[in-house]
Amino acid sequence: MCALSASQGVLDTGKKLSDDNTIGKEEIQQRLAQFVDHWKELKQLAAARGQRLEESLEYQQFVANVEEEEAWINEKMTLVASEDYGDTLAAIQGLLKKHEAFETDFTVHKDRVNDVCANGEDLIKKNNHHEENITAKIKGLRGKVSDLEKAAAQRKAKLDENSAFLQFNWKADVVESWIGEKENSLKTDDYGRDLSSVQTLLTKQETFDAGLQAFQQEGIANITALKDQLLAAKHIQSKAIEVRHASLMKRWNQLLANSAARKKKLLEAQEHFRKVEDLFLTFAKKASAFNSWFENAEEDLTDPVRCNSLEEIKALREAHDAFRSSLSSAQADFNQLAELDRQIKSFRVASNPYTWFTMEALEETWRNLQKIIKERELELQKEQRRQEENDKLRQEFAQHANAFHQWIQETRTYLLDGSCMVEESGTLESQLEATKHKHQEIRAMRSQLKKIEDLGAAMEEALILDNKYTEHSTVGLAQQWDQLDQLGMRMQHNLEQQIQARNTTGVTEEALKEFSMMFKHFDKDKSGRLNHQEFKSCLRSLGYDLPMVEEGEPDPEFEAILDTVDPNRDGHVSLQEYMAFMISRETENVKSSEEIESAFRALSSEGKPYVTKEELYQNLTREQADYCISHMKPYMDSKGRELPSAYDYIEFTRSLFVN
């Protein structure tokens, strides 16, 4: 500004001098012209210098930028030229991360280099007087960038290569570790102790094999693919990779072979134990069946041999013979068990888990069975002899029992029917005599009944419960004999009653005979008693006018008669009750004490001096019997002893008339 204002002052002064003076005007003007020229030249020179200085400044800035980038490139060249490519995966991964950071930074710096070069090219385009230097700098910078890029690419390749190798080795280590673990799993001699444990081991083995197959598709396939990839890329460590992979595959194939061998042994063990299992089950099944057969046979053979007839012992002996015939089948079963036991023991296994039966126990059972069979045969022979003796005893009993029963039937028929012939032609006394004689014969036959009872006792002692030769028993025959004896006594008493009634009451012998004949006529079953319907028919036949009533309708007149002859309504009227009723109807007007005594004597069996409670109720109405029992004194014998249920009718009658 000072030079400019000074130059302007010079110009203004020269112009003023030129305008004010004429002297020296040309020279002033000439000098002014020169001054202007010189000023212009100075200005041009100053401008040119300023331009060069500006270009130099820009150049220096360019150089500074180039140097800065070159310094960074030189620094990074040292980094990428390092021979440290990492010896572990962690180290290589760290180096790769650093390299990635470098490449990121490098990208930024390449952009900066491009900017610096572009700036230099702009300076060249502006004709910067440092053009040659700028061109050299740009070329040098770009060369260094290219060198760094190549060096970085080489380091990256080596890092990747080393990473791939370490990655391969790491994966190979993992695979070898897995193989080693599985190899240890196969280092066992446990092939099971029975079928169940073998099948459990087989299941584990199948799971193990499935794991091998899965690993082959993943681990082995991956490491092989990685190996192929590295070899295809011509990895610097290709030979080492091939050697490592070959060693790995050798161990893998050996693992597969060991697994297959173990599975084969397990399958063989399974087949072995399956045979043993089948033998165990077959033995257990047959042993159980054999033992059940033996228990049933033992129960039958030890069952007490107690028969009731020859037929039963014959059936038992036939059954025993059939059993002996079946022993051949049992012997065959026993031999099969022995063979099964031999086969089982040949396998040298533990005891049979399916049964507690052993062959030794079964052999003892078989020996015991032979012993029981012999004992059974002796018992059957003994029982055969006993039954033969029992059958003889049955026949002897039947012979006497049948004969005795025949005599009872004939005697009963004689008493109830045979005496009719006597009745028609003889007197009551002759009938009584014949009846007494027959009763003596009945009493004499008691000895024959005793013999039958002795035979029956012998049969009971021999436990003979039935007799096919007769339907009669000692109890039945004894009851029939007792009934026959009572019938004889009743017949005697009835005849004595009729004789007494004839002699004391005026009832004729013909009337008594008619009463007796009519009773026997209606006694169809010869039981010595009439049911109510037979009794009613008998009364009508004797002239009693009883009304005809429908069945189920009340019959008070007949009921009044039954109150006398059957007060307890047992449904029957005995000959004694019947005759007492008929005689009482014929002697309703008895007046003297002798007649009353005779009437009581007629009620009493065998004309005893007393009458029993039973006889009173059988022959009198309930009111009459109750009256007599309440007023009669108990009967005392000659020694002053009171007889049970016996009443003194003589003392009662005399006291009645005395009163």
Model description:
A three-stranded antiparallel beta sheet has the order 3-5-4. It has a two-stranded antiparallel sheet with strand order 1-2. The radius of gyration is 77 Å and the shape is rod-shaped. The chain has helices at 2-20, 25-80, 89-125, 131-186, 195-232, 238-302, 310-346, 359-425, 428-444, 446-461, 474-505, 509-522, 532-541, 556-565, 575-586, 593-603, 613-619, 622-631, 649-658; strands at residues 529-531, 572-574, 611-612, 634-636, 642-647. With 659 residues, the chain is mostly helical. A hairpin with a 5-residue loop joins strand 4 (634-636) and strand 5 (642-647). Helices cover 80% and strands 3% of the residues. Helix 17 packs antiparallel against helix 18 (622-631). The longest helix has 67 residues, at 359-425. Residues 359-391 form a coiled coil. Pfam families: EF-hand_7, EFhand_Ca_insen, Spectrin. Keywords: Actin capping, Actin-binding, Calcium, Coiled coil, Cytoplasm, Cytoskeleton, Metal-binding, Phosphoprotein, Repeat. Belongs to the spectrin family.
